[in-house]
Design goal:
This protein is α/β, with parallel strands linked by helices. α7 (168-196) runs antiparallel to α10 (250-265), α7 (168-196) packs antiparallel against α12 (290-301) and α9 crosses α10. It folds into three domains: 10-74, no CATH class; 79-166 and 315-349, Ribonuclease H-like superfamily/Ribonuclease H (Nucleotidyltransferase, domain 5, 2-Layer Sandwich), CATH 3.30.420; 168-194 and 213-305. The strands form two sheets. A five-stranded mixed beta sheet has the order 5-4-3-6-7, with helices on both faces. It has helices at 34-44, 49-56, 60-74, 122-131, 134-139, 149-158, 168-196, 215-228, 236-248, 250-265, 273-285, 290-301, 303-312, 317-333, 339-349, and strands spanning 10-13, 17-20, 87-96, 100-107, 112-118, 142-145, 163-166. The two termini are 19 Å apart. The radius of gyration is 28 Å and the shape is globular.
Length: 360
């Protein structure tokens, strides 16, 4: 092993502070060469925080600074990602406890993150649209999202030519939430019955004494996972639990049928989706189940956005997979204290920027 030492000239200015001489093999104010920084970045995108620090013999905070410098060097202008935008996806993902979120924008055609920033509200998303030129905003034709109102508001204001598409996955998730709301209400009632029928006397109950039957309580607890899964993926035990719910808890089973009915709508032919959706909306609005009545109103307000999703054949699956990548980045790094380091890491990993291993 050998070291090359170079004495770099430093100038101290009363007005502008200390400045060092530029060298061709390292960034300004960096103690490492470009090659070493590329090596650190390559390892950091594939290994955990502990492994990277131990293998490269540097502090993890130093790794974050190196990642940011490497990203800026490999991609000096992020606006290159904003060219030829036609179909984009917008979503948010948590990066820290305490309701800390990132807003992610993905290009469906290039499959890379084109913008990321902390926050998940109208102001955050508007800041992205404001940095785009009017020509770029007008070129965007489709925006896929999860139906959040703040996304819809920002898109309608800035992207006048774009159609909003709500992913069917999220629509079915709304139905699952409504079904689970019904299950929780029945579970709460069943627990009240159990608590009111508790025996005050000690010892074994007499033969003619009535005791609480916990069968329905067990069914409601086991039904959470059985009713949430698709019928074709049920295990034998989960199918038996579902059959018991059908016979003993008809109100809850009707909620399950409504959920599966909505899922079946998106499996029908594209030409029949609107007709099938109208039938389901009538069924849900007349079901006397308040959760599904409210859901039918929510879906009716977003009906055209759901139909546009089927028409254009687009989904939010790509951005959901990007969210999973971000979760893995955060988990491997045991969290980020510096939000810029996190966003730069996301832009590096979820992009088409080639990160080569030096000397490989």
């Amino acid at each position: 092993m050998f070291y090359i030492q170079c004495n770099v000239h430093r100038i101290e200015c009363k007005e502008h502070g200390v400045h060092t001489e530029l060298v061709p093999w390292a960034s300004t104010y960096s103690r490492f060469t470009y090659t070493f920084e590329e090596m650190v970045t390559w390892v950091a995108t594939r290994c955990t925080k502990k492994d990277t620090s131990e293998f490269m013999r540097i502090n993890w905070r130093t790794t974050g600074e190196i990642i940011s410098r490497t990203k800026d060097r490999l991609e000096p202008d992020i606006k290159e990602r904003w060219k030829n935008l036609k179909r984009i996806g917008i979503d948010e993902t948590s990066y820290k406890k305490g309701h800390k979120y990132l807003t992610i924008v993905v290009d469906h055609d290039t499959n890379q993150v084109i913008w990321v920033a902390p926050g998940h509200d109208y102001e955050t998303l508007s800041s992205f649209f404001k940095v785009l030129t009017q020509e770029q905003r007008d070129s965007i034709e489709i925006v896929s999202c999860d139906g959040a109102k703040w996304i819809k508001k920002a898109v309608k204001e800035f992207l006048t030519n774009a159609s909003i598409c709500i992913d069917p996955f999220h629509v079915v998730c709304w139905a699952e939430d409504a079904m689970d709301e019904c299950r929780k209400a029945l579970l709460s009632e069943e627990r009240k019955i159990r608590n009111s029928s508790k025996r005050n006397k000690k010892g074994r109950p007499k033969k003619d004494e009535k005791t609480y039957d916990s069968t329905n309580l067990k069914r409601l607890q086991d039904g959470k996972y059985a009713m949430g899964k698709n019928p074709e993926n049920l295990t034998e035990h989960q199918q038996s639990v579902l059959d018991e719910i059908k016979n003993s808890l008809p109100k809850l089973f009707k909620a399950y049928q409504l959920k599966e009915g909505l899922r079946a709508v998106f499996k029908s032919d594209d030409d029949n989706v609107e007709e099938e959706l109208n039938k389901w909306l009538w069924w849900a609005s007349h079901s006397k189940n308040q959760a599904f009545v409210d859901l039918s109103k929510k879906i009716r307000d977003r009906k055209q956005q759901i139909l546009d999703t089927v028409k254009y054949g687009i989904s939010n699956a790509r951005i959901e997979s990007t969210n999973n990548k971000i979760k893995v980045i955060i988990r491997k790094s045991y969290g980020f204290r510096n939000i810029k380091n996190l966003t730069d890491m996301v832009l590096l990993v979820c992009s088409n920027i080639p990160i080569c291993l030096p000397y490989a």
